[in-house]
Amino acid sequence: MTDIQQIVLAKRPEGDVTADCFRAETVSLPALAEGQILIAQRFLSLDPYMRPRMTELRSYTPPFELDKPLTGGSVGEVVESKNPRFAKGDIVMGMLNWATHTVHDGKGLRKIDSAGVPLSAHLGVLGMPSFTAWYGIKHICKPKAGETVFVSAATGAVGQVAGQLAKLAGARVVGCAGDEQKCQWAVREAGYDACFNHKTESDVGAVLDKLCPQGIDADFENVGGRIFHAVFARLNNFGRVAFCGAISEYQDATPMAGPEKMFTIVQRRLTLQGFIVSDHVALMGEFVNEVGGLVASGKLKSRETVIDGLAKAPEAFMGLLKGENFGKLVVKVG
Predict the structure, then answer these.
(1) CA nearest 63: which of 99, 12, 22, 5?
(2) What is the pLDDT of residue 258?
(3) What is the model's pTM?
C-alpha cells in the first residue's frame, strides 16, 4: 500500500473561499487492479473555473463532492501500471486529484512529450488556458487588421495568450490587469498597445474612451462586472464578445445585473457568445500545430507563477481568485 497526501473539499464556501473549505489528509492507496495505473503528480493547474465547482449551483461541469479530493488539470508520471496502454515512466496529462498520487483507469489521459519545454507549459501556454484563448480569438472574436480588441485579465493564463494572438492578427490590443507590474509586462513583453490597472481606475469608461477612441470591435471577456459594462457600451457595430469567464462574480453573493440597454445588441448587430473549450476538443490538433509553432519560434510569450508543494494549493487558489498570481498558476507537487 502507498501512503499519499490529498486535499479534499471540507465545506462549500459562502462568499469568499476560506482556508476551512479545504482539508489535508493522508490516506493509503490499495494495490492496483487490472487496467489501473498509479500516477505521481508533478504539476497541478489552478484555474478560476474551479470556484463555481465548489458550489452546488448548476454549471457546465459537476460540482466537487464534499469530503472528496478536488480535481484539476495535471501532469504526472506513471510509476506503476497494470494497463497495457501505459508503461512506467510515461508522462501523462489529464484531470487528476489534488494529491501527490492518483490511481487512474487511463481514460481521458494523454501522453505528452516531455522534451523541449517545461512540464508545466502543458498546463499553460500549450494547454487548456492557451487552447481557450486560441478558440475564443480565432473562432469568436475573429480580429481583423486595424480593429481594436479588448482583453480583460490581460496577463492571466488565458488573457496573456488571447492578447498576443489578436496582436499577431494585426489588431490594436488594449487590456486591463490588477497591478502596474502586470500592465508593464503586457505592453513591453506581450505586445499590448495599452493596458490599465483596473484596481486604481474608478471610471473604467473614461479610460476606455481615451485608450479606444474608435470604439471596441471585439472583447475577450474574463472578468465581467463593471469592466464588461463599460466595454459593452463601447462596442462598435458588428462587435464580437467571446465570453470566457466572469471572475469578478465568482465570489459575489449579489453579482451585478447585466448591462443596461440590451437592445444595443440589436441596434449594433452584436455577437455575444459564451463558450466552453471542452466542447471543441476536435480542434486540439490544429491548436497544437499553430500555437506550438508560435511558442517554438519565440513569437508567443508567457508568464507563470509556480507554487512549491501541494499543501500550499488552497492558499494559492484563494490568491488566484483575488488576482495575486502573475500568468498561469501551477503547483509543483513532486
Answers:
(1) 12
(2) 79
(3) 0.93
Q: According to the model, what pLDDT value does residue 227 have?
A: 96
d(Cα 131, Cα 124) in Å, to the nearest integer?
Answer: 9
What would the pLDDT profile of 181-225 be if each residue is shown by its tens digit? Answer: 999 999 999 999 999 999 999 999 999 999 999 999 999 999 999
142's enclosing H/E stretch is: none
Q: Which three cell numbers stand for residue 66?
A: 464534499
Architecture of domain 2-124+303-332: Alpha-Beta Complex (3.90)
Distance CA 126, CA 119 (A): 10
- Strand 37-45, strand 101-104: pairing: antiparallel
Q: Is domain 128-278 annotated with CATH 3.40.50.720?
A: yes
Closest listed residue to residue 221, CA positions, set 280, 301, 137: 137
Alpha helices in 126-262 (DSSP H): 128-135, 159-168, 180-188, 204-211, 225-232
Residues 6+ apart with CB under 8 A from 222: 151, 152, 153, 156, 158, 159, 244, 245, 246, 247
Q: Helices (DSSP H) in the chain: which residue ranges?
A: 50-53, 128-135, 159-168, 180-188, 204-211, 225-232, 264-267, 284-297, 313-320
Bridge partners of residue 41, in order along the sequence: 76
Evaluate whether 257 touches 232 at the Cβ level (below 8 Å).
Answer: no
**How far is the C-alpha of 147 from the C-alpha of 149, rounded, in Å?**
7
